[in-house]
Amino acid sequence: MAIQSNHSTMKALTVFIVCLLALLAKLHCAAAEQPPKLNVLLIMADDLRDYGGAFTRDVVKMPNLDRLRARGVTFERAYVQYPVCNPSRSSMMAGLRAEQTGVANNTTRLRQMMPDVITLPQLCKDAGWQSHAFGKLYHLGGGKDAVQKALWADTGRSWHTAQDYVATQVGRRMVEGRNVTGGALNWCAWGAADGNDDDQPDGQIATATMAMIKQLGDTPWFIGCGFMKPHDPFIAPRRYFDLYPTESLKRWRDPRDISPVPEKAVGFGAYGVAFGKFTDREWQELLRAYCAATSFMDAQLGRVLDELDKNKLWDKTLVIFVGDNGYHTGERNWWNKDTLFERSCRVPLVIAAPGFKGAQTSRSLVEFVDLYPTVADFCGLKMPHAAAGTSLKPILTNPAASIKDAAFTLVTRGSKLHGQSVRTTRWRFTLWSDGQTELYDHDTDPEETHNVAQANPAVVAQLEGRLKTLPPYKVYLDNLRLRDADGSTTPIWENGKDTRFRSIADSNLFTHISARAVPSSEAGK
Fold first, then answer.
1. Which of 3.40.720.10, 3.30.390.50, 3.20.20.70, 3.40.50.1100 would CATH assign to domain 39-404?
2. How far apart are CA 422 and CA 470, in angstroms?
3. Average pLDDT of the residues of the chain
4. What's residue 473's pLDDT?
C-alpha cells in the first residue's frame, strides 16, 4: 500500500515537473519572440523654420539634415500647436493641444497646469528606458536657481538626468557682430564667435549626447538632444559665417499689393517698431547670422549621427528631428515667431525608423501632437491618456498616405484676444476671437500675402466649423494660483502684475494681462 502511494506521488511529481518545464520553455520562447526595446533619439532645433521665402534649399547649407532625410521620411507639412517655444514643447511632450494644456506663454511650466500628466519621455522612462536630456527639450527656465532649473527641465519625472549648457569664456568673445536694433531689443543681435564648436552650447550638447549613447551601450534609452540654435542671439563660431558672404544673400521682399492684416496678427509692439526701422543691411545681416547658426547646429547634428553610425544603432533606434516652431525671416516685415502664418506654424520634421524605407517625402498634414502616439506605437507602449494626435507609423509605411485633413494652431494676445488657425491641403484660415478672419489659398499664394476671405464665404464657413471641433478655449481672470512641485502656490495676478512675466521685455509678445485656458466646464466658476 505504501509502495503504491509512493509510486503515485512520484508520478504526480514527474507530471508537475514536466508541465513546469513546458511552461518555462513557453515563457522563454515568448520572451525571445518579443522585439527588443527601440532606442528613441529626439533631436530638437530651436526656432528652425522650414524652407521658403529667402530661406531656401539653395541658400542654407544643412548637409547633415540631408543625411538624415536620406534615412527617413521628411514631412513637408508638419505644424506646431502653438508657435512659441514653451507652449509648443509642452504640447508635444504632453501629446495635447495648447487649448488642453493651458500653457500659452514662456513663463508657465507644464506641471504647474497639469501636475500629474505623464509626458512622452516619462512614458518610456517609467517602462524601463534610460531617459536623459541634454540642452533644450523643455523650455529652459529658473535662471541660476538650481531647484527651479530642475523643475523647468522636469528632472526626475521626464528624465533620469537633464543638463543645460553655456558658452565658454572663449566662446563668449565675438570676433564681429552687433545688435541690429541699437539695443532697443536686447535679443536681436548676432555674433561671429571666437573658439571652436565645443565653446558653444550646441557643441557641448552634441558631445554629451554622444558620450551618453556610448555609455549606455545595449541598455534601451530615450535621449533628448535639444540644440539651442538657430535661436537668438544669432551666434555661431566664425567659420560658419564664412559659408554665407553677405553679398550672396537676398532679403525677402513682400509684394507691393500685400493684404493688410489684423493689428495683433503680426508687426505689433516694440518688435514691429524696431523692424520697421531696418534697412537692407539689417535684414541681410540677420539672414546671414540665422543661416550661419543653422549650419552650426547642422554640424552638431552630424556629430550625433556619426555616433549612431559608429555604434551601429540605426537598426535599433527611432530618430526624430524636429524644430519647436517656425520663424519669419522677413516675411511681413517680421523677424520672429508667434504668428499664425505658415512661416511661424510650419516646422521641419524628419523621422527615421528601423525597417522603414528612407529618402521618402510625405505631403500629409501632421501635427506636433502626433509625435507622442507615434513613439508609443513604435515602443509598444499604451497611451496613458487620450491622445490629441495620431500615430505617424502608417505614413512611414506608405508616405503617400494621409492621416488627417487639417492641422491647428493657437496664439494668444493676453486675456482679450486669441486666434486659432486651421491649415488644410489648400487653405489656411485664421479666426480671431474678435471676429476678424484671414483666408489664404496655398494653391496660388504659398507665402500667404493675399487675404481672400471676403471672396470665399463658403470656404470661410466650412473652416470656421472645423475650428469649432477643437477643445474650447476659454479665458478668465481671477485669483488663480499655480501649484509648484513642492506644494507651494504662486498667484498669477498680484499687485496688478502678471507674476509669470519676469520683466516688461519678456511680455512684448503678449500683453500685461494674465490669461489661462480652461475647459468649458470650468468657465464661470
1. 3.40.720.10
2. 10
3. 89
4. 81
